Amino acid sequence: MHNCISTSSFFVKICLNFKFQPFRWAFQGFDGWTKKRVQYLMTEKNAEEQRLATEDNYKNWKRWGPYLAERQWGTVREDYSVNGHAWDFVDHDKARSNAYRWGEEGIGGFCDSREILCMAPAFWNGKDTILKERLFGLTNGEGNHGEDVKELYFHQVSTPTHSYNKYLYKYPQKKFPYADLVKKNKSRNREQPEYEIRIQRPLRTILILIAL
Question: Domain boundaries in the chain?
Answer without folding.
Answer: 2-44, 60-211
